[in-house]
């Protein structure tokens, strides 16, 4: 029984999966989506849920620093709701404030080039979202 973490953007969804014991998160891929066009990547997410026997999906909720929810947060709430209706799997929202900035900092400290950072930032943000959730469950 694994947990999946998602970092949802307008063009991509970063995906991370927990190990079988729910201790660690590993980034697995970035799914290209078109939020405005209604292409939300649910088919691929369903394939990954089935492949990894995922029982819970954690969707990052980008709150504002004052704890309010802005337009991007509302879009993530809507995404999570649609995901639940489509897949009928447990979906939770997780406060992801600063996860993308933290992922960027990790990549900068590792001296990863700008081009390579852009290719992996969403996956690393998904790892940070999922790892935060997993750590809170212990």
TrEMBL record:
The EC class name is hydrolase
Give the domain of life.
Bacteria
Name the InterPro entries on file. Answer: RNaseH-like_sf (IPR012337), YqgF (IPR005227), YqgF/RNaseH-like_dom (IPR006641), YqgF/RNaseH-like_dom_sf (IPR037027)
Keywords, sorted A to Z: Cytoplasm, Hydrolase, Nuclease, Ribosome biogenesis
Q: Tell me its EC number(s), please.
A: 3.1.-.-
Q: Where is the YqgF/RNase H-like domain?
A: 1-103
Q: Where in the cell is it found?
A: Cytoplasm
**A Pfam family assignment:** RuvX
| Iron as UniProt keyword | no
What the entry lists under Gene3D superfamilies is as follows: YqgF/RNase H-like domain (3.30.420.140)
Function (record text): Could be a nuclease involved in processing of the 5'-end of pre-16S rRNA.
What family does the database annotate?
Belongs to the YqgF HJR family.
Q: What is the name of this protein?
A: Putative pre-16S rRNA nuclease
Question: Which species does this protein come from?
Answer: Jeotgalibacillus marinus
Q: Could you tell me the gene encoding this protein?
A: ruvX
